[in-house]
Amino acid sequence: MAGLREQKKQETKAAIMDAAITLFGERGYENTSIAALARAAGVGKGTIYSYFSSKSDILLAFSEEELACLHLELQQKIPVNALLEEKLLLIFMYEFRYITKNKEFGRTLMREMIFPKALAREKSQEIEEQFIQLFVLIFKEAQEKGQLRQDIELTMTCGHFYALYLMALSAWYSGRLLSEEDVRNALQVMFSQALVGLKPKSEIEKS
Q1: How far apart are CA 141 and CA 152, in angstroms?
Q2: What are the pLDDT digits (tens) for 130-156?
Q3: Domain of 5?
Q4: Count of alpha carbons within 13 angstroms of residue 55, beta-carbon side
Q5: Cβ proximity of 139 and 148 under 8 Å
Q6: How far apart are CA 91 and CA 86, in angstroms?
Q7: Are residues 187 and 104 located together in one domain of the fold?
Q8: Alpha carbon 6 to chain centroid distance?
Q9: What are all long-range contacts of 64-70, with beta carbons under 8 Å and residues at least 24 apart?
Q10: pTM over 0.85, yes/no
């Protein structure tokens, strides 16, 4: 019985999140009410609030889901011996596909994560910190393998590469990059150029 209750809870939560993807994408985040979400999900307003404290909380749930998927992607699909640039491309392209499954919803999700409202700021920062730590581990591993200099500040380095990703994502939304392949090619060029300055001198001489 407990298993059935938990399954029902997960199904209800999924229905609410599916409704959010549709309505945030069609109407925009600001123009979507909790009442409209409840109608689209086939539940009452009170049910929405039993799962999420606000609309911002719903968006943060997507960010948590994305983070969990990134961890899974890293563990299951990225070769252990892959080079740093290859790992970064695989992870950021996975995030790109996740964000752009629904173009307008993805735009809303990114805006709310980058510029969170006061009520959601603490939770947003917590998710951001987990995301940063995921990349810190990747860069630290590259340091240990001699692929990166030992004197670089890893958190700032993560921020630098995420900024490059946001630049490519913005270019896709504005139409300067037209396809997933264009985004990947742009990221590959930017990452390759950025990594040159982070490699030990011995690694630069090899290449």
Answers
A1: 13
A2: 788 888 888 998 888 888 888 889 888
A3: 1-51
A4: 22
A5: yes
A6: 9
A7: yes
A8: 27
A9: 64/127, 66/95, 66/98, 66/99, 67/127, 67/130, 67/131, 67/134, 69/94, 69/98, 70/94, 70/95, 70/131, 70/134
A10: no
